[in-house]
Amino acid sequence: MGICRYSANGTSIPKRLEHTAPAASRSKEHTMNWTLKACASLLAFALASGSASVAKAEFPDGVITIIFPFSAGSGGDVGLRIYAEALSRKLGQPVIVQNKPGGNSAIAAAEALAAQRDGYTLTVLTSANAIAYADMRAQKKKLSYSIDDFAPLSGFAEFFNVIAVPADSPFKTLGDLLSYAKTNPCTLNIGTTTYNSANNLVAKLLAHDAGVKYTIVTHTKTSELTTNTMQGRVHAGIQLYAVFEGQFQAGTLRPLAVVTAKRSAYLPNVPSVAETVPNYAVPSWMALYVPKGVPKDRVELLGKASRAVLTDISVTARLKEIGFESLATQPEEQDSLMRGEMKKWDSFFTERAGNQEKVCSGM
Known about the structure:
The structure is a single chain. The protein is of the alpha/beta class. It folds into 3 domains: about 1-40, no CATH class; about 65-160 and about 285-350, Bordetella uptake gene, domain 1 (D-Maltodextrin-Binding Protein, domain 2), CATH 3.40.190; about 160-280, Periplasmic binding protein-like II (D-Maltodextrin-Binding Protein, domain 2, 3-Layer(aba) Sandwich). Helices cover about 40% and strands about 15% of the residues. It contains 11 helices and 11 strands.
């Protein structure tokens, strides 16, 4: 009896179903019942086999989203899209960047934590997250998220900020700028991006360490900060090298100092802040995380792929073009870096009283 011997995909019936037809003495009805039962068993077997194949589909097999806590077009956004493009090629799946700026990164964090813990949603945490944590702690407030809600995959990039002035500014050095601030308290305006962003903290820490008072003017968009700095609406602006680079080349902005421990290879003739204010340095970095709860094997796969991308010569070369140094750290290294930054800024806010905006009123 050949009916139902093979499934539609060619799967043979299990041997336990390969019986001969019932004895002739049995009724025709009994024979039909047996045939129907055999077909039903085969169908169940085929469906189970198909389900198992689907369940074993390799990860990832769909779109991966990276939630970024800063606006589109920012320096970090440009670098992250270079990374996302390379990660997409590595994994063979689309990788998109979703911008969710604001709220001390709380908006992006909430979006990531609301997603399924399946490895298809990544987010970026930065040195600014450590800053926000320390500031809220000093105010005895709590963020809507915790660093402990996330698991690190790998680092992403290190980068640096630059203190710049309009091309026709009377301030020729950082020393000139700080001397003016010291003799004219609260009359100097320094532009940064949002409250407690990395460059905002650069301005706060600089005022504290240099012993001066000036007004910090925050901007929601890097484009606004750039324009206001070029047009002299603020005396100086602090922003990523990647953002100001075009203006440096065009001659509309002039760099006074790089916010690094020593001079940068990107601007070798520009002094570091530490040459004017000893021991001053504010490193900036970004890293890739996932919400905790993602299966361990997926976390490991994503981390390995991320580090492979960040050590690819073609990727590192493109990142260098915008002033980014790739940071292909292991999860344990990244966790240590984050917690070290949290401790450092916790000390700044609690022991050094660094909320400069409370000293001088804004514009």
